[in-house]
Design a protein that fits this description.
By secondary structure, this protein is mostly helical. The protein contains eight helices and no strands. Helix content is about 80%, strand content about 0%. About 5% of the residues have low confidence.
Length: about 180
């Protein structure tokens, strides 16, 4: 057993876990509970993917040096998505979707490159070509208050705070909530 083996095992396990957790978190209802727990776990799994990729790159620098910048960029996306939720600044939902979605695109790209082959240029670009428009569409749906429904109130509250306005008192509907109801 070489020094590389434990890092490779961690990298494969973490990457596989991230590939499984991503869609489950994406499909989970957008409120406290499964979505937030899965997202928290996904963030830490992405850190493990990054650290293990960095270790693998250092151990075989001449062969896979490119793991390091790709792993760093992939984790940076996950970190942006994770911190957006934690800080809840104006526009946080857009940053959350873009960051987490971008990191998932990176995971799928890595899966294809390793298993299909890095000589096929299409495997490097296909996940981005497919995933980026989906991310853009989801962000536009959120901006319009149509998706996900549980976030519509969060968007309205975040926008109101950004403008310095008070949120609607309990029992009253915000303009965003009214738009969501009208769209149903």
């Amino acid at each position: 057993m070489s020094l590389r083996d434990p890092f490779l095992a961690l990298h494969i396990a973490a990457g596989t876990t991230g590939l499984i957790l991503g869609p489950i978190a994406m499909r989970a209802p957008k409120r406290r509970g499964p979505h937030t727990k899965l997202g928290e776990t996904y963030h830490w799994v992405m850190l493990a993917v990054c650290v293990s990729a960095a270790a693998l790159a250092v151990l075989a620098w001449h062969r896979i040096w490119w793991f390091l910048p790709i792993a760093t960029f992939s984790y940076a996306n996950a970190l942006v998505g994770y911190l957006a939720v934690k800080r809840r600044r104006p526009g946080w939902i857009r940053a959350h979707i873009g960051g987490m979605g971008g990191s998932y695109i990176a995971l799928v790209t890595a899966l294809l490159v390793v298993n299909v082959g890095q000589q096929l240029p299409i495997v490097w670009f296909l996940p981005t070509v497919v995933g980026s428009p989906i991310i853009a569409w989801v962000i536009s749906e959120v901006d319009r208050g149509r998706r996900p429904r549980a976030w519509a109130g969060a968007v309205a509250a975040s926008s109101a705070r950004a403008r310095g306005a008070r949120p609607a008192p309990s029992g009253e509907s915000s303009p965003s909530e009214l738009r969501v109801r009208a769209a149903r």
